[in-house]
Amino acid sequence: MRGMNRQTQKWARFALKCGLLLTDAKLWESIGSQLRDRVDDVGDEVRRRYDDTAGRLHRANDALHGRSHWATPAASFMGGIGLGVGLGLLLAPASGEETRSALRNKVVDLKNRVETSGYRTMHPSSTGTGGD
Hints:
The protein is an all-alpha fold. It folds into 2 domains: 1-66; 92-125. The chain has 4 helices and no strands. The termini are far apart.
């Protein structure tokens, strides 16, 4: 029992020392000062990195718009076409085989029309009637 009493006294002294240490105004002032300094350092670093990143983005944007104004709208347009085709294929009421067959037929038909119209403009008939 005497051993437990000694152990209890040690824990009680430890708790009192910790309590006194935690109520020390100078300690809290020092901790607060160090935390403020660290927060200021972190804030300065965040500001510096933000300014650096924003500058790089502005330079990239200026370079992109300085070279060509059509790149962004063209990419958006092509992306929209791709999205539309993808959604159309997913939500089509026909089966996959039917949709692919219809799509293939339309592409072949379009190719034939382009070839035919291109041939006529490149090789006009000698009569001037356009071959009609």
